[in-house]
């Protein structure tokens, strides 16, 4: 039972690592560590299996091992599928005090996160009016306002995901649904919001896209 | 249903991130067991109520792991007969006083030098306090029966109360009989022991991560941060956040960076000092070391101390 349980946990770590699930759960820095731990657990299980089989009658495994083994099976069987807008809604949108940006990409090449960082470090909307925008993200509903296009920043794991969003002026028609992933092309503009001027993306072309394989930003 | 899916994903994230660190901790504990069988050196660690915990805290520099990895090593220290204060000092201070955590704190807050001194300083103070509070409990009320049994085997008989002794002569004087040199245990046995320990801890980690993921999904984090600027409330809410989020001490500084601008400095320090000592994920793991009453005492004492620390910092810096 001991080798079996070790092998099961090793499998959980290795499968999560190889199947790309970790891209949805953890910051990239931890991926090699998880895969390596999986291999180590499988090797440990293989080293102990012969002795365990040859030992004859053994004391029964503790109940906690069985229970956690069931959880390990469930983790293998049910891949994670979080609602990004749910994660974002639960958390304050704050990027912290970013240092000066070290370099600046041309407007059309900036990602959503690049744009948000730029707007935080130099919050003068008139600087960017008319710049072309090509970004992608998920739809993040805002109470009392139009939904924003957002991404999640993750430093460790999904538990510390922090949303960053850009206000979007959507074209007339149905408002996009929460959690939907969209690629948006348009231009930056300035609008009045609660008595303050802010940058807003005027969407000209909206294309639904699949969730990217690496949806979390560092 | 969406909530459930999100909680499941957070659970997997917490668990998959913590398991490798748990494995590292168990590996270090097993290695110590193999290299230094019998743990004579453990018993020679200082017994002094202040020097003991400080020595334990200093051991953290030799073990760059976060709080999950520390639990198996602290268990090894206690089982090997190390003085209680030293083992507790290690358990509570080492998750902050280690190179990785200090480096990540520095990387996250290069513009707040006071935090670089206050975080390890606060962790050290907290560990000293917790060690002295928990030492008030008799070991039988503090440690789990299984751990206590193992600890008694490795303690000199003179340190064990008369009622707890299973052998020896009452009233015997003079030097204890020389103990036979302890053989290094076979590698297979060390592997078995380490594997059992890993599986026991993994089961508790599953429990802790499940609680943390559920509470996180149900409790909107914006509520906790809504009180941002109020001195006392901000400290309290950030303490609650640290307990709920249960993120590893090696990365919590980066998480704190996300809301550092909105909160008081005392609240920021409270988050960074309390999280590595008490959180929902750890409460499960502590079950291999402590009796429930001792866990409650740890949580209560740590909360009061961190609240005072946060208030004091706010008084100085606000």
Question: Can you tell me about this structure?
Answer:
Chain A folds into 2 domains: about 1-80, no CATH class; about 85-215, OB fold (Dihydrolipoamide Acetyltransferase, E2P). A 5-stranded mixed barrel of chain A has the order 1-2-3-5-4. Chain A is of the alpha/beta class and about 220 residues long. Chain A starts with a helix and ends with a strand. In chain A, about 35% of the residues lie in helices and about 25% in strands. In chain A, α1 packs antiparallel against α3 (about 30-55) and α1 (about 1-20) runs parallel beside α4. Chain B is mainly α and about 325 residues long. Chain B has one domain. Chain B is built from 16 helices and no strands. Chain B has helices at about 1-35, 40-45, 50-60, 65-80, 85-95, 100-110, 115-135, 140, 145-155, 185-220, 220-225, 230-245, 250-255, 265-275, 280-285, 290-315. The N and C termini of chain B lie far apart (about 45 Å). Classes of the chains: A alpha/beta (about 220), B mainly alpha (about 325).
Lay out the secondary structure:
The complex is a heterodimer of chains A (218) and B (318).
Chain A: H1 2-18, H2 22-25, H3 31-54, H4 63-77, H5 84-89, H6 112-121, E1 132-142, E2 145-153, E3 162-169, E4 181-193, E5 196-208, E6 216-217
Parallel strand pairs in A: 2-6, 3-5
Antiparallel strand pairs in A: 1-2, 1-4, 2-3, 4-5
Helix pairs in contact in A: 1-3, 1-4
Chain B: H1 2-35, H2 40-43, H3 51-59, H4 67-79, H5 84-93, H6 99-108, H7 113-134, H8 139-142, H9 145-154, H10 187-218, H11 221-225, H12 231-245, H13 252-257, H14 265-274, H15 280-285, H16 292-317
Helix pairs in contact in B: 1-4, 1-10, 3-5, 4-5, 5-7, 7-14, 7-16, 12-14, 12-16, 14-16
